[in-house]
Design a protein that fits this description.
Elements (H helix, E strand, L loop, with lengths): L1 H9 L7 H8 L8 H10 L1 E6 L7 E7 L5 E7 L5
Antiparallel strand pairs: 1-2, 2-3
Length: 81
């Protein structure tokens, strides 16, 4: 699943939910930027999977930004267009 998610980020086929944007803006250690999410997904590893999540299977990715900021990113993935 990680390779497919990374490919989606590389081809800019991603969607940030309102909830995700709110969490990114309200992060207590400083706002999380889209670039940081991309860097985290690129360098990260899947640490948990949630195959039964609704509406799509998802996974928790842990990685670090280019500035060594550790982040956890929750991504849902579907092959549907």
């Amino acid at each position: 699943m990680l390779k497919e998610i990374q490919n989606c980020f590389r081809s800019e086929r991603i969607l940030f939910t309102k909830h995700a944007r709110d969490e990114m803006e309200g992060e207590e250690f400083g706002e999380i930027r889209e670039r940081e999410v991309f860097e985290t997904v690129e360098s990260g590893k899947v640490i948990e999977t949630y195959p039964e999540d609704e509406s799509y299977p998802s996974c928790l990715i842990y990685g670090k930004t280019s500035e060594d900021r550790p982040l956890h990113v929750l991504c849902a993935y579907t092959k549907d267009e």
